[in-house]
Write a structure and sequence with these properties.
about 200 residues, mainly alpha, globular
Length: about 200
């Protein structure tokens, strides 16, 4: 726990999670394409020289995907969060502010970044595509409702796990993580209520 009181630790950790999340998302896409290529080639339907199109997209219009960078608002928001954490760190260490408040804020920020970038899911997907060729990512992503529901279940599992950990340690850092997970479930519920179920 002492490491979070180093002024450089939390800003560097949050920046690391931002770039790691982006890198994992890119890696997931690469591994998925490699997996789809193996699957289609096993079926013997696509030549090596042609563009690989997974079976579930054959009847769809193939569109060239444009690479989208992160919006400027994303960076402004993250700079504000990091500045706020450094400000509370200053109050904690120099002005005698409650260190419990700082632990809650840092725990919340860590968990919010870690789980909202879906780092556990990305790591799981990369492993799945590598170990089980022919994984049907395309069929799963057809339903946003299904994906959101899966994320809610995943978040609840982490919530129960960290609740047990909090009761065992009474760490305010873990309390911040719990608050973040509760807010994440609320945000997912909001998305679910706005996402219509597919007709099929």
């Amino acid at each position: 726990m002492g490491l979070i009181y180093q002024i450089w630790f939390m800003p560097l950790l949050l920046l690391f999670l931002i770039f790691w999340g982006r890198r994992l998302a890119k890696k997931e896409d690469e591994v998925y394409k490699e997996d789809a290529r193996k699957y289609v080639n096993i079926e013997g339907r696509v030549e090596e020289s042609r563009e690989v199109v997974p079976p579930w997209r054959r009847k769809e219009e193939v569109k060239k995907e444009e690479k989208k960078g992160l919006p400027i608002g994303f960076w402004i928001l993250n700079i504000l969060v990091i500045t706020y954490i450094v400000f509370v760190w200053f109050l904690t260490t120099k002005e005698g502010f409650s260190n419990k408040i700082y632990e809650i804020i840092t725990g919340f920020a860590f968990a919010f970044y870690f789980f909202n970038f879906n780092i556990p899911s990305l790591l799981g997907n990369i492993w799945t595509f590598r170990e089980y060729p022919g994984s049907v990512k395309g069929e799963i992503t057809l339903s946003k409702h299904f994906v959101l529901a899966s994320r809610k279940i995943e978040t609840k599992i982490y919530l129960y796990t960290f609740t047990i950990l909090f009761l065992a340690t009474f760490s305010f850092f873990i309390l911040g993580i719990l608050l973040s997970l509760i807010i994440r479930i609320w945000l997912i519920d909001r998305h679910l209520s706005k996402t219509p179920l597919p007709d099929w």
